[in-house]
Write a structure and sequence with these properties.
Layout: E1 3-11, E2 14-21, E3 26-33, H1 45-57, E4 75-82, E5 87-93, E6 99-103, E7 114-115, H2 116-127, H3 131-137, E8 139-140, H4 147-150, H5 153-163, H6 167-205, H7 210-269, H8 273-308, H9 326-331, H10 333-394, H11 402-464, H12 469-491, E9 498-509, E10 538-548, H13 553-575, E11 581-585, H14 593-610, E12 615-619, H15 622-625, E13 630-636, E14 641-645
Parallel strand pairs: 3-12, 3-13, 8-11, 11-12
Antiparallel strand pairs: 1-2, 1-4, 4-5, 5-6, 6-7, 9-10, 13-14
């Protein structure tokens, strides 16, 4: 696909409509100012070729979208027509959204026309290039032709990796290395566990087998059971000992019971119940007599108290009739008061005698109760003694050697405790052995399952890494890049040679073993692979560098042009692009006049021959433009420019 037509309307300095009919040739694009043929800068040469990029990808140099429309105009448009009928129109009204149309047939509008995003997708599909690929294979702006030479090596490497589409491989390698690191960490951990399990197993077995430990445990357990039976027999003998002790305790208790009975009988012998009863009866009668005397004296004291106060109502307290001497009685108060005091004193003495009589009655009653209780206790004690005497007489204690039984039981219990502890220790030891064996089996199983995965990932590191797929992809490109550039320079008669360098030894140590892919730990102390023993070298990095037989700005431009075109030819084939034209904006700016003229004559042959372009637009100054088969002239008219195909 080459350009058959380019239409401009109010595009940057190109006011109005401009149409260019184009053919399959290399055009030298030059400019002059009307009235001053020596002046060619700032007339619109670069703006003209930028229109091609803008039409296809919408990219321009301005920060505002309206800025590309010619000053003072309200609309702008750029359209391109390819020789296969594919056409693209990108247009805009000031303040409105830029519209895009693409048609596989022609510029005529119709239902087959794709618009906006669909149109952009159709452009990428038909050209086979994204904007980045377009810049790298077709469109080389000012100084872009030498971009591979002039930019930093890291940026240059990144550009080439994007051309070669190494990012997925690099990303895949990073993921594989990360996954391999995880697996290797697991494997290292399992191997350490395996060593620990085996060490523990060796320590626990101590030269024996698990079956020998189990047999030893059974033998000790049998002894424990035998001792239990012996202890059971001794327990029966101990029961006889306890029976002797029980008989002894019963006899001692009977002796105490009999002694208590004898003491009780002595106490009862000193007590006379009949005398206690008579004493109680006499105390009761004496208390009753004292109560009556106390009542009479208290009554007399009460009556005299009334008379002493002059409150006698004339009623005789004895006969209950009116006393004719009431007034005389009440009148003699001093005598009445004295008599009251005498009666009160008599009543008080009688009250004391009554209390003493009551105390005597209580004490007599207590003595009778105590005598009665002692007689009852004596009857019960005699009955208990008789019963206990019969039971004690029937007791028969066995004859046993208590000391021998106790000593034998103590020895058996000590021996059995020791055996039980030994059996428990053997149980724990057997359990640890079984756990160690289970750990060994499980760890070996984990290692066996994980090792093939790790081996696969190691192979993947080789396949995806710098020595594998990335190298196989990069080497043909780098070889073609170097050979194409040097052959092109030789064909141009330029005494300059280029050497392309890709792999370099870095400062850091290698991340993984070059022989087996086993990842190294981060520590710089590790000097060899723990898996295969390979020495650890430096980390090899991909970095695109160029060595020139001559280093100057002109050499960089010359080498940059041929290197970029050589890379573009390879990339166009790799992308399967149908575009067969190129745009080069002043690729020989730093060359002297002799080299510029030599490059100008050779560019046509290189572009249309070695590098496979059918059409090209080379922005240059006027003297070199005549060296190309075709010429496009931009003429500046002050505030605007015009353009025409001269040849």
């Amino acid at each position: 696909m080459i350009l058959e037509g380019l239409d401009l309307e109010n595009w940057m300095p190109f006011r109005g409509k401009h149409s260019l009919a184009l053919g399959p040739k290399v055009y030298g694009v030059s400019a002059r100012l009307e009235g001053n043929a020596e002046r060619s800068n700032w007339q619109g040469k670069t703006a003209l070729v930028e229109a091609i990029r803008f039409s296809l990808y919408g990219e321009h140099r301005f920060s505002l979208e309206d800025a590309w429309i010619t000053r003072g105009e309200s609309t702008g448009q750029v359209a391109v027509l390819f020789d296969d009928g594919f056409s693209v129109i990108r247009e805009r009204k000031r303040g409105k959204r830029t519209s895009l149309e693409a048609s596989p047939k022609s510029l005529r509008r119709g239902p087959h026309v794709a618009k906006d995003d669909a149109a952009q997708g159709l452009i990428v599909q038909r050209t086979g290039l994204s904007l980045e690929d377009f810049r790298a294979t077709v469109y080389f702006g000012q100084r872009d032709a030498a971009r591979l030479v002039n930019v930093r090596s890291a940026e240059r490497t990144e550009v080439v990796e994007s051309w070669l589409r190494l990012e997925p491989l690099m990303s895949a390698e990073d993921k594989v290395v990360a996954n391999l690191g995880v697996l290797e960490t697991r494997l290292d951990g399992w191997r350490q566990d395996l060593v620990a399990f085996r060490t523990q197993l060796e320590q626990e077995l101590a030269g024996k087998t698990l079956e020998q430990l189990r047999a030893q445990r059974r033998h000790r357990a049998e002894f424990v059971e035998m001792n239990k039976k012996s202890l059971a027999d001794l327990q029966k003998e101990r029961e006889q000992v306890r029976e002797v002790e029980r008989v002894r305790d019963r006899l001692l208790a009977y002796k105490r019971l009999k002694a208590a009975l004898e003491d009780l009988e002595r106490r009862v012998a000193t007590v006379d119940i009949d005398a206690a009863k008579a004493k109680l009866q006499a105390a009761i009668e004496h208390k009753e007599m004292q109560a009556k005397a106390h009542t009479l004296t208290r009554k007399e004291a009460d009556d005299r108290r009334v008379a002493a106060r002059g409150e006698f109502d004339g009623k005789c307290p004895v006969a209950g009739i009116q006393c004719p001497s009431r007034d005389e009685i009440n009148k003699d108060q001093k005598t009445n008061l004295r008599r009251y005091e005498e009666a009160a004193a008599a009543a008080s003495e009688e009250a004391k005698r009554l209390r003493r009589a009551e105390d005597d009655e209580r004490m007599a009653r207590e003595e009778l109760d105590e005598a009665t209780r002692l007689h009852s206790d004596l009857a019960r004690a005699r009955a208990n003694e008789a019963k206990e005497r019969e039971e004690v007489a029937a007791l028969r204690a066995p004859i046993v050697d208590e000391g021998h039984i106790a000593h034998a039981a103590t020895l058996l219990e000590q021996e059995n405790q020791s055996l039980v502890r030994e059996v428990a220790g053997l149980d724990e030891r057997i359990l640890r052995v079984e756990r160690a064996q289970a750990g060994i089996a499980a760890t070996e199983r984990d290692i066996a399952q994980c090792e093939p995965k790790a081996a696969t990932l190691r192979d993947a590191v080789h396949i995806l890494g710098r020595q594998g797929a990335r190298r196989r992809i990069a080497e043909p490109f780098l070889g073609e890049l170097e050979a194409g550039a040097n052959e092109a320079l030789a064909e141009c008669g330029v005494d300059l040679r280029v050497r392309v360098l890709w792999e370099h030894e870095g400062k850091d140590l290698a991340r993984a073993c070059a022989a087996c892919g086993h990842p190294f730990p981060e520590s710089a102390r590790v000097k060899e692979c723990s898996r295969c023993g390979e020495a650890r070298g430096k980390n090899v990095v991909n970095r695109l560098e160029f060595e020139f037989s001559d280093r100057s700005a002109a050499a960089e431009d010359l080498a940059g042009v041929v290197l970029q075109l050589s890379a573009a030819a390879w990339l166009r084939r790799a992308r399967g692009s149908a575009l067969e034209f190129a745009v080069l904006d002043e690729p020989m700016a730093h060359c002297d006049r002799a080299n510029r003229r030599a490059m100008a004559h050779a560019l046509t042959q290189m572009l249309c021959g070695r590098f496979g372009f059918r059409q090209a637009f080379v922005v240059t100054h006027t003297p070199e433009a005549s060296a190309f088969p075709g010429t496009i002239l931009v003429t500046g008219h002050g505030t605007y420019s015009s353009v025409e195909v001269v040849s």
